[in-house]
Amino acid sequence: MFDTILSGDRPRSRSLALLLVAILIALALAPFLFPGTKSLDTAARICIFIVLVASYDLLLGYTGIVSFAHTMFFGIGAYGVAIALSTLGASFTAIALGTLGGAALAGVLALAIGLFSLRVKAIFFAMVTLAIASAFAVLTSQLSWLTGGEDGLTYRIPKVLTPAFKFADARILDVRMDGRLLAYYLIFTVAALLFLALLRIVNSPFGSTLKAVRDNAFRAEAIGYRVVWYRTTSTVLSAVVAALAGALLAIWLRYTGPATTLSMEIMIDILLMVVIGGMGTMYGAVIGATLFILAQTYLQTLMAGAEQATQAVPLLPVLLAPERWLLWLGVLFILSVYFFPDGIVGRLRSRK
C-alpha cells in the first residue's frame, strides 16, 4: 500500500525514512503538537513551500532547466484567488474560479515561454525567464486598480475558514475547534495530494524520459524523443503546480502582494531549498523546505538566547546578535553544500 502511495519511490535510507515520517507527523498534528499562531503559520508555510519547491525541482532537478520565472507563476496563482475574492466576494466559488483562472494563465504563459525559448541554450533561457519575471513584477505593481500595486490586496475568505467560525465548543489539547484549524487542514491535504501527484509524475515513464533529456538531450533526440515537447510539458506542469501553491498561500494569508509572492528573494529561497534538500529527489523538497523555513522563523530567537547565554565570553555575543541571523543562515547554507554536495537526501541515500 505504501509503495503504491509513494509511486514505488522508497526513501532507500532508514535515516531518511525516519526524518520524513517525523516531518509528516509534525505537520499532520501541528495544531495540537505546537499550539500558537506563529507555530501554525510556520507549519502552513512549510506545506505550501514543499509543493512550490517540489514543482521547481521537477523543472531543475528532473529536466535540467534553470528558470527564474517560478515566482511569477506562484504570484499568478495567488493573485488569481485574491482578485476573485476581492471582486466576487468571500465564497468557495470565488476561490475555485480564482484558482482555476490562475492555474490556466500560468500554464498558458509557461507554454509560450517554453515554445519560444527552450530551443536556445540554457543560460539564455535563464536570462529570458529572468527578464519576463521582472517585467511581470513591474506590471503587477503598476496595475494598482487590479492588483493593489505595491500595497497588494487584502480580502475576506469564507467565514468557515476564519477563526470567527467555531464548529465545536469542546477543545482538544486546549486547541479551539475553529475555522483556522479547518483552513490549515485544507492546505495540508491539498499540499499532500499535489506532492503525491508530482511524485507519481517523476516516477512514471514521462519522468524517466525527463531524466534522460536532462542527462543527455542530444542522445534523447537521436533515439526519437521530442526534447522540446518534453521540456515544454515539464515547464507547463511546473508552472501550474506553482500557481496552485500560490492559491494556497492566498487563502492562508488573506493578503497578496509583490513582496509575498513575486520578489527575487523568494526565488533565491526556492533555489536554496532545492539545493539543500537535494536536486532530482522529490523528498529533497520536503527536507529543504522544512529546514529552511524553520531556520528563517526561529533562528533569530535561538540567536537571542545564545547571545544572552554567552554574555561573559568576549566577542561571541556580538557575533550571535539576532540582527546577524542572515549571516549565520548563509554560513549554514555553505556548510550544508560543503558537507552535502548532493543534498541531504543524496547524502543519506549514499550512506546506505
- Tell me the CATH architecture: Orthogonal Bundle
Annotation field: number of helices: 18
Q: What is the residue-averaged pLDDT?
A: 89
The assigned structural class equals mainly alpha
Terminal Cα separation, in Å?
A: 24 Å
CATH class descriptor name: Mainly Alpha
Q: Biggest β-sheet: count, sense, barrel?
A: 2 strands, antiparallel
Radius of gyration: 21 Å
* Widest sheet, order of strands: 1-4
> In terms of per-residue confidence, which ranges show pLDDT below 50 for 5 or more consecutive residues?
none
Number of strands: 4
CATH topology: ABC transporter involved in vitamin B12 uptake, BtuC
Strand content: under 5%
Q: Indicate the percent of residues in helices.
A: over 70%
Net shape:
globular
Question: Could you characterize what this model shows?
Answer:
The structure is a single chain. The chain is mainly alpha-helical and 352 residues long. The chain has a single domain (2-351), classed as Orthogonal Bundle (ABC transporter involved in vitamin B12 uptake, BtuC). Helices cover 74% and strands 4% of the residues. The chain has 18 helices and 4 strands. It has helices spanning 2-5, 14-28, 30-33, 37-60, 70-88, 92-117, 122-142, 144-147, 179-202, 205-215, 217-222, 227-253, 258-261, 264-277, 282-309, 316-319, 325-339, 343-351, and strands spanning 153-154, 166-172, 175-178, 255-256. Strands 1-4 form a two-stranded antiparallel sheet. It has a two-stranded antiparallel ribbon with strand order 2-3. Strand 2 and strand 3 (175-178) form a beta hairpin. The radius of gyration is 21 Å and the shape is globular. The chain starts with a helix and ends with a helix. The mean pLDDT is 89.
